[in-house]
Structures are given as structure tokens and as C-alpha cells.
Predict the 3D structure of the following.
Amino acid sequence: MKRKIGLIGGGQIGGNLALLAIQKQLGDVVLYDIPQAEGLVKGKALDINQLTAVEGYDCRVTGTTDWNQVRGSDVLVITAGVPRKPGMSREDLLEVNLKIMRDVAANIKQYCSNAFVINIANPLDAMVFALYKITGFKKNQVVGMAGVLDTSRFKFFVSEALGCSIRDVEALVLGGHGDDMGPLIRHAIVGGGRLTQLLNKEEIDDVVRRTRDGGAELVALYKTGSAYFAPAASAIAMAESYLLDRKRVLPCTAYLDGEYGIRGYFMGVPAQIGAGGVEKIFELALNENEKAEMDKSFDSVKKTVASVKL
Ligand code: APR
């Protein structure tokens, strides 16, 4: 039987998620949005369905404003919320997006109690926390997408700086999805060699800065919203690993239960995603500097989570 992928929010990221899910033939897609956006999601669904003949895709998209149609989804990806505008931080979105998350999470609990849920809405770490608390789902069932995107940006800037293929860049970004995120320089490997031996300090600082500001750079360019292609591709990698039980180890915003010395919060760490959802957290041996960066990032996450009133 085909798998069912529920996309909550049919805006910029939602539409790209639907397209990628169909192109990868992961399953049938339900693209849900609020009644005011009915034409948008029905239009996107019809448009994507009309391309299925080109490559012979057998999966279909349904655009809907009815939660009944989302019922029984195997995996859900949430993008319901408002994106940043120039000059805004992700944290500035908390109040407006938390209001939306309250509604979305309550419906998820009612209609999709067995789904694996991936959240993209910002501020990411706090929104996943809210989602987890409102649904009361298991800790392995709820996750946030940020690390795959931040890591992809990091790898891209490294490959640009070196002029080498992105395939041979191994790297990771840890921590919260905010200005304190931590690209792990010491762990970055290109073609078997350490990044620290391939780029000088200035070049590395530049890569780190562009990675951290990757989202803001796009907000400044787009002016009306935030990134959507790369976030969609990143969440699809996570959904695919879950649906196909690939057990990929991906940097995700996962619930920490003592790992990295943190308990009861969601933070970006390498996590194994398979049929069991978040099956395992990988704990890296961090040096003093890296631990200090992780702590700083955790402090920022804690501060935002403290403002989450459920
Ligand atoms: N239920 C479902 N969808 C909703 C709800 C709701 N309660 N409230 C708003 N939406 C929908 C909007 O109607 C809109 O179509 O969410 C969609 C968001 O789409 P965009 O505005 O295009 O935003 P997008 O770029 O997709 O980003 C969504 O992801 O990266 C984060 O910061 C970003 O929080 C933002 C989210």
C-alpha cells in the first residue's frame, strides 16, 4: 500500500515538499492549509498532478482544508506559520507561530496519532518543544528540521571555498537553529583531509559566518519571506529515511534525554532516523570549545522555550 505524506501548510516550502515527495515517489501527498488558502493548495495539487505523466509518477497530491483528509498520514511535515521578513530574527516569530502551532498540534493529536512528525516552522527548537508538549507524542515521534539544512549550507560554502565537489565534503552543524548554531570545524573532512588544513582561519571564519547567516541572507534577498527550496529538500531527506527505514544519521532537532548533558529540550544533534522514528542519538566527543559553543546555543534555546506558553 502506498504511504501517506501529510503536509501541514501549503505555502512556499509546502509546495516544494509536495513536488519533491512526488518526484521521489515516496507516497501520496495531502497538502493541507487553512480555508483562506484553499485555492492555493488545490491549485498546487492540480499543477503537480499534471506533471506526473511527464515522468510517469504514480503518486498523487490532494489539496485540502479538511483535517479528515490528513487522517492516518504516516509522516507529517509542518510548515504552517509565518516566515521572516528582512530585519527579523527567527525568535521574533514565536508569538504568531505558536498560536498556529497550538491549532496544528491539537489537530495532529486528534487525526494522526501514529504519525512521525517533522516540524519546520520557526523558531524551530521552541516550536518542536511546543509540538511535543501539546501532542503528548513519544519523544522519538517528534523532530525538527534544521540541522540537515544548516549542514547543507555549511557543506556548500566549504565546497565553494575549495572549488571542490560537494560530495566529498563531510561536515556537521550542531545546536539550535539560531545565530548560535555550531558548525563543527574540527570534524569537517574533505577528501579525507581536515578542513583546518585546507582553508586558513579567515576563510573558515567566512564559511562559518555565511552558514550561520544563511537563512538571513535569503530573507534579505527575497524580502517577502524566507528560504524554501533547501528547507524542503532537507525535510524530504528526513521523511525518506523514516518511510524507507534507511536509518540515516542526520543532524536533527531531537529530544534530548541526558545526551550532551541536556534533558527535556530539543536541540540539533546527529540522530538516526528509521522506521522507529528517532531511533538513536549519536553523542560526539566534543572538546572544551565545542562544548562551550553547544552550551551557548542551548542557553539561547532555553531562553526562547521559556517564553513558550502552552
Ligand atoms: N494550519 C495550516 N496552515 C497554516 C495555518 C494553520 N493553522 N496557519 C497558516 N498556515 C499556512 C499559511 O496559509 C501559508 O500557506 O502556512 C503557510 C506558510 O507558507 P509561507 O507563508 O509561504 O511560508 P514558508 O516559506 O513555507 O515557511 C513556513 O517555515 O522556515 C519556516 O520560518 C518559516 O515559519 C516559517 C515556515
